[in-house]
Structure prediction request, 96 residues.
Amino acid sequence: MNGHYGVMVFVISNSLSSLPFLFFIAFVSGSIIYLMVQLHHGFEHYIYFVLLLFVELACADSLMMAVASVCPSFLVGILIGSGIQVCQYATTSRPF
Prediction:
């Protein structure tokens, strides 16, 4: 960063600018998975599956952006972000 903008502005703008790409990833991979596994038939179930996948990707991306803005080292940021995600998934009462 060259000092023209703060860390919070960078994190928010990077998270917002990645949303279309995350939706594309969720749509493509969700379509492949949904049709391969032959989940429930119906357009509503398919849309719910793709939107759920999109929200999961957006949350993971935003979390990693927030961790990366705090950690000075790339490897330490990956370790801390992975640890936070493992703690989140380990404490859920109903896994997928």
User: Anything to note?
Assistant: The two ends are 38 Å apart (CA to CA). The mean pLDDT is 84.
